[in-house]
Design a protein that fits this description.
Blueprint (H helix, E strand, L loop, with lengths): L11 E5 L4 H12 L3 E6 L3 H13 L5 E5 L5 H15 L4 E4 L13 H28 L4 E6 L12 H22 L6 E7 L26 H13 L4 E3 L7 H16 L13 H8 L5
The protein binds nicotinamide-adenine-dinucleotide (NAD).
Amino acid sequence: MKQHPAITKGNVAVITGGASGIGLASAKRFAGFGLKVVLADLAGAALERAAAEVAAISSKAEVLAVATDVSVLTDVQRLKQLAFQKFGAVHVLMNNAGIGNGGGPTEKYERWQKVLGVNLWGVINGVQCFADAIAAQGVPGLVINTGSKQGITCPPGDTAYNVSKAGVKVLTEALAHELRNRPGCKTTAHLLIPGHAWTGITGRPVDAPESAKPAGAWTADQVVDFLLERLAEGSFYILCPDNDVSHALDARRIQWAADDIIQNRPALSRWHPDYKDKFAAYVKDVTR
Ligand SMILES: NC(=O)c1ccc[n+]([C@@H]2O[C@H](COP(=O)([O-])OP(=O)(O)OC[C@H]3O[C@@H](n4cnc5c(N)ncnc54)[C@H](O)[C@@H]3O)[C@@H](O)[C@H]2O)c1
């Protein structure tokens, strides 16, 4: 299969949140294509184990694990310095580290700070530290930021998470615009929007067998398959379905959310009792 031109043997990929889930599955795939991989995640056994798993695919010399808290600018600056020091270049940056369990609008102030620190500031830190350096190399480059449908349709519940992911969407859109307007720039930016994937953040226990996956969820590998396919064709919005939610259903949900503004409906009308039946009717011909 054709790949995005930055995904090429000998190139270098930096992946945050690389010790688990979508980040680890991406790291393994990149290593399989012959890329050198820098895994950035919180210090601990998971990062060491992930580095060993990726090294088993390529070689120990081509994998670097860097203990990094993405919410801390100096950690991300150090990550950049170590990546360039070891491999001399970075072609792919995947700002993917994320946490959930934020909170509603009026609660859990400290948790809000934590979730925004990792999910939004982590991505801002990654973009600010790496994007210019990647683009300045003059060869194909790639920035993938992991967002969420929750940053687009904003379901009630974890508002802190929704705010963080809405911010990632806005930042990534602006980065794509900025890069495509730089004369001769060969670096592109993309927003990965996973559906329900069975990973740490959705409760997958470490070392759980694949057979225990909830039926509706995708595996992290399926997300990576879809990501690579859409990157190859040049998509900016990489909106993944899952086994419960089709692209057609996502399209209706996103359209409904946008129509709240245009039609001056109540905020989050999809979850408003007066609109329950109208929303159900709006999506009823979409099978799943
Ligand atoms: N799994 C899903 O259903 C789903 C859906 C939409 C979006 N996402 C997003 O996908 C991304 C990857 O998550 P995942 O599903 O693979 O979950 P995961 O929990 O398996 O992986 C997330 C990784 O981020 C790391 N991390 C957390 N805080 C960090 C920090 N401060 N610095 C560095 N690393 C940190 C964790 O240690 C973990 O290894 C996240 O941004 C998440 O919000 C996931």
